[in-house]
């Protein structure tokens, strides 16, 4: 699995999971394709939501800002693979971490349950931090104004990137898919919303 791919699901196990339902589903025109694609798409969206919750248990950030760092690629009948990828940076601008301008610089709340902290550089060099148009910027204290750079919060991959977390996340995605494919099959066969 590539570094930017968070979860990937495909349709290979669908017939085995469905068991006896598979023969009944195949009797419906394009039934198997419909069931598998719906299950894949709902499963991958559910995994995005679960990962957002996991991240927000550690970090003090809004759900929509976390979800904006992820890209869902939905399955189709011709391409029965759904995936969830990291889009661009897996961190969001510091301006979205409830940043506030103070006399001494900018403060943000990064971790849940911790107090607000003043923004400083990781190298310990003195910098001037300020807000403009809702974003947090920094420049070296004695440098010209042209050395301004936009600041970002910590990467979410610290929570999601360990090999144990990746294996657990993929296993959970497959469990969600197994549940969803049976529910979608029952929905198709009975006409009742699952």
Task: Please describe what this structure looks like.
- The protein is α+β, with helices and mostly antiparallel strands and 194 residues long.
- The chain has two domains: 123 residues, no CATH class; 57 residues, no CATH class.
- The chain is built from six helices and nine strands.
- A three-stranded antiparallel β-sheet has the order 1-3-2. Strands 4-5-6 form a three-stranded antiparallel β-sheet, with no helix packed on it. A three-stranded antiparallel β-sheet has the order 7-8-9, with no helix packed on it.
- β4 and β5 form a beta hairpin.
- α2 packs across α6 and α3 crosses α6.
- The longest helix has 28 residues.
- The radius of gyration is 22 Å and the shape is elongated.
- It starts with a strand and ends with a helix.
User: Beta-strand percentage?
Assistant: 15-25%
* Rg over alpha carbons: 22 Å
Distance between the termini: 32 Å
Mean pLDDT: 83
Number of strands: 9
Fraction of residues in helices?
25-40%
What form results from the Cα inertia axes?
A: elongated
Q: Give me the side-by-side strand order of the main sheet.
A: 1-3-2
> What is the total domain count?
2
Our count of helices gives: 6
For the report, how would you describe the main beta sheet? Answer: 3 strands, antiparallel
SS-based class: alpha+beta
String of helices and strands: EHHHHEEEEEEEEHH
Protein name: Prophage minor tail protein Z (GPZ)
Keywords:
alpha+beta; 20% strand; 3-stranded antiparallel β-sheet; 9 strands; single chain; 40% helix; 194 residues; 2 domains
């Amino acid at each position: 699995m590539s570094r930017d791919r968070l979860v990937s699901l495909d349709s290979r196990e669908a017939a085995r999971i469905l068991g006896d339902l598979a023969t009944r589903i195949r009797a419906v025109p394009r039934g198997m394709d419909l069931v598998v694609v719906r299950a894949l798409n709902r499963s991958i969206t559910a995994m995005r939501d679960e990962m957002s919750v996991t991240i927000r248990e550690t970090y003090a950030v809004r759900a929509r800002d976390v979800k904006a760092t992820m890209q869902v690629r939905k399955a189709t009948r011709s391409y029965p693979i759904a995936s969830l990828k990291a889009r661009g940076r897996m961190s969001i601008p510091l301006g979205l971490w409830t940043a506030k301008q103070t006399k001494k610089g900018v403060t943000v709340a990064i971790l849940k349950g911790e107090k607000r902290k003043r923004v400083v550089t990781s190298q310990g060099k003195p910098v001037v931090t300020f807000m403009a148009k809702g974003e947090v910027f920094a420049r070296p204290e004695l440098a010209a104004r042209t050395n301004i750079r936009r600041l970002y919060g910590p990467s979410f991959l610290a929570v999601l990137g360990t090999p144990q977390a990746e294996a657990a996340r993929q296993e959970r995605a497959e469990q969600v898919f197994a549940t969803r494919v049976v529910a979608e099959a029952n929905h198709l066969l009975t006409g009742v919303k699952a």
